[in-house]
Structures are given as C-alpha cells and as structure tokens.
Amino acid sequence: MHPKTIGLIAHPGKPGVGELINSLSAEFSRRSMSILLEKETAAVAGQRSALTIAEVATKADLLVVAGGDGTILSVADQMGEANTPIFGINVGSLGFLTCAGSQTFRDAVECIASGKITFSNRTLLEVILRDSKEKHAPMIALNDAVVSRGELSRLIRLHTRVNGEALTEFNADGLIIATPTGSTAYSLSAGGPIMEPESGVFVITPICPHVLTNRSIIVSENSVIEVEVSEPDYPVYLTVDGREPLRIAKDAKVEIRKAKKKLQLAAMPNVSFFSVVRQKLKWSGSNV
C-alpha cells in the first residue's frame, strides 16, 4: 500500500503531541503526501481544521493515530462506516495496538511512504442492548463488552446463552466478552487467555467468579452471545470499549455478535503480535 493522503489524529492531552503532529506533517509533506488534520489535533498543533474523525477517515487512505491504545479505541468508535486502516504511534510506552514509539516517527513515516507496512484485519463486536422502554443503537467494539455490577459490592447473576443454547449462569462481579484483540486487555487481567489477533474466536471471561468452576470459555466468532441479569434488583451496567456505561434495565438483555466490518491495523514490518507480547509481558526467556 502506498497511501497518498494521510489523516492525522492525536490524543490532545498527551505531552508533546502538538510537536509530534507538526513533525509528522512535515515529514509526510516532504514526501509529497497530502495531510488531513482532525480538528482537535489541529488545535493542539497550532493549525486549523474543521474535520471530524469520521470525515478524516472517509477522505484519507491511512489514519496515523498518536496516543495510546485508548486513543485507537476512541478513533475506531468514531470512524462511522469508513474502513480506513489505522497506524498507531504511541506517545508513552509501547501498547498492544500501537506499533511505533514517538521517538521513531521518522522510521514510521519512511515505512509508510515506501509501502512497507503490514496489515492485520481485526474482528469487531456489534453490541446491542435490548429492552422494552428504549431503542438502543448498535455499538461497535474493538476490545470488549463488559457487563458488571455498580458501586454496590455485591455479586450479580448473569444468565448466558450462545447461539440460543444455555451456557451457564455466571455468579460473579461481571462478565467480559472480548475479541482476540481485547484478549490482552481487561480479559487478560481477569485471568482470560491470550489469543492471536486473527484466530477467529471470542472469549467469555467472568470477573472474580464466586464459583471456581466458572472459567473462561472460547467460542467461534460466528456465535451470537446473549447475557441477561438473573436478579435485576441491583444496578448492573454495560460498558463497551471503556465508554460511558449504560444501565441495564430489568427486562433487558445484551446481544453480542461479530460486526459486519473489520478494522485494519497497520504495523511496522518488524513488529509482530508475538514480539509485542514478549515485550509487554517480559517473556525474555525461562523464569526458572
């Protein structure tokens, strides 16, 4: 891929991100590549633009996102119907979704300009909250959907079905339904397995289960997963990719399936999923 138009999007609160955006703009322009700036990104860089993330994604061949994994999740949520690839530059430590550090941005620009970047197609979740009182629009997630208790320190019971067949009733603090991309996020912290990004599965992981036999289970990405609250007298919430939580009503259920589109994540040619896992988890050899 030899992109001609680059969309630049940054987390405006990251230190030094304005200087990084200006440096990236200069490097891409020097290679005769057009630049589109998202409006908040332009403001922090001292430039002008009125373009939203969705508008930039529609017009650009590649999105270069400066921030962290959370910034990429936010951009993926706001892209709309666009399917523009995302190349992440981490402003801070290396993340699972970003593939280059801010100190090596010139190497990143060179790889992009020369067409040496690689791509990984990431499965997305479509999450629908169904209840009789309110119609909720489908939500798209790159990482996970989480059903969890509120501030009250009390276990909740979550009746879970896969393709219409009962799986079990989880008695836990909550339940995480994660994509392979999200398997290295909250699900991993809750004891779930690490899954290769294009493995074609989802993982269902209970959060602090009361019953020791309640464990993570891996299902096909073609599965439809339904979660209902068995005892809805206490606050229970749905959170999609860390966004604002939604209160789950008594008669509601959460339905999760594979989204129709996928997200393309771009990477440097020498950066693989397993190399990132080794670095992040410090798998540098035997621990014995």
List the helices and strands and how they pair.
Blueprint: E1 5-10, H1 17-30, E2 34-37, H2 39-44, H3 53-59, E3 62-67, H4 69-78, E4 86-90, E5 100-101, H5 105-113, E6 118-130, E7 139-141, E8 144-149, E9 156-162, E10 165-172, E11 174-178, H6 186-189, E12 201-207, E13 217-220, E14 225-229, E15 236-240, E16 246-247, E17 253-267, H7 273-280
Helix pairs in contact: 1-5
Could you characterize the architecture of this molecule?
With 288 residues, the chain is an alpha/beta fold. It has two domains: 5-117 and 268-280, Probable inorganic polyphosphate/atp-NAD kinase, domain 1 (Rossmann fold, 3-Layer(aba) Sandwich), CATH 3.40.50.10330; 124-260, Probable inorganic polyphosphate/atp-NAD kinase, domain 2 (Tumour Suppressor Smad4), CATH 2.60.200.30. It has helices spanning 17-30, 39-44, 53-59, 69-78, 105-113, 186-189, 273-280, and strands at residues 5-10, 34-37, 62-67, 86-90, 100-101, 118-130, 139-141, 144-149, 156-162, 165-172, 174-178, 201-207, 217-220, 225-229, 236-240, 246-247, 253-267. Strands 1, 2, 3, 4, 5, 6, 7, 9, 10, 14 and 17 form an eleven-stranded mixed sheet that branches. Strands 13-12-11-8-15-16 form a six-stranded antiparallel sheet, with no helix packed on it. α1 packs parallel to α5. It starts with a strand and ends in an 8-residue tail after the last helix. The model has no long low-confidence stretch (mean pLDDT 92).
